[in-house]
Amino acid sequence: MAEAASLTVSVWRGAEQGSFARFEVPARANQTVLDVVTYIQRELDPSLAYRFACRVGMCGSCAMTVNGRARWTCRTHVRKVVDADGALELRPLANLPVIRDLAADLAPFFDKWSRARGTFQPKDAPDGAVPEDFAVVPPASKQRREADAGIECIGCAVCYASCDVVAWNDEYLGPAALNRAWTLVNDVRDGGRAERLDAVAGDAGCHSCHSTQSCTERCPKNLDPSSAIAGLKRALFWDTLLGRR
């Protein structure tokens, strides 16, 4: 079957109360969804708002909702996601306020990183001072492997936009913030373990996760936030059982 000569693209325009606008875009070989959005902005409607930076799957800033699923648009080829009629529907990331068009406001997402105590706290350098020497962490240690499993998160918010719990509970910290907390809990150089576990133990924390694993399924970096959240639950259980809380 010959490929369609053009794509019908429905693009969200406006803020929370916006609507879709439809564009016809030429279909090209090896075309990414970001290519489509860029064509619309450059050739059809220069007022279209969206984000991108690296274009090569490194920064995550081009994430949008493509035919109902959060994705990095720079690494999403049109032929893999277009429907049978050659149509695309593009929205901003879900579970976040809309600034305009395809640009979501990530401030609530990063605020929750702060609430989960996602900042490294060196145990050997009080009051935020810089440690005098590098800490040696054996690469084969269990803690190092647990920390390494989630450390490559770049904060693109795809997991957050895909999370069913965030969708109905906007206080929930979300998979990225909890993944970051678990990474730091396992960092033997960090001195903020107790405060961090307190931060993720409440009603908005790890125990609210329903383990549907949408975050793990859709993470563009192939990380496993679901396992990180399960790790936090175990850590809290054992700390409570052993009287450390």
From TrEMBL:
Pfam families: Fer2_3, Fer4_17. Keywords: 4Fe-4S, Iron, Iron-sulfur, Metal-binding, Oxidoreductase. InterPro entries: 2Fe-2S_ferredoxin-like_sf, 2Fe-2S_ferredoxin-type, 2Fe2S_fd_BS, Beta-grasp_dom_sf, Helical_ferredxn, SDH/FRD_Iron-Sulfur, Succ_DH/fum_Rdtase_Fe-S, Succ_DH/fum_Rdtase_N. It is an enzyme of class 1 (oxidoreductase). GO terms for biological process: respiratory electron transport chain; tricarboxylic acid cycle. One of its GO terms (molecular function) is 4 iron, 4 sulfur cluster binding. PROSITE patterns: 2FE2S_FER_1 (PS00197), 2FE2S_FER_2 (PS51085). Its EC number is 1.3.5.1. Part of an enzyme complex containing four subunits: a flavoprotein, an iron-sulfur, cytochrome b-556, and a hydrophobic anchor protein. Residues 5-94 form the 2Fe-2S ferredoxin-type domain. The lineage of its organism: Bacteria, Pseudomonadati, Pseudomonadota, Alphaproteobacteria, Acetobacterales. It comes from Neoroseomonas lacus. Belongs to the succinate dehydrogenase/fumarate reductase iron-sulfur protein family. This is Succinate dehydrogenase iron-sulfur subunit. Its cofactor is [4Fe-4S] cluster; [3Fe-4S] cluster; [2Fe-2S] cluster. Pathway: Carbohydrate metabolism; tricarboxylic acid cycle; fumarate from succinate (bacterial route): step 1/1.
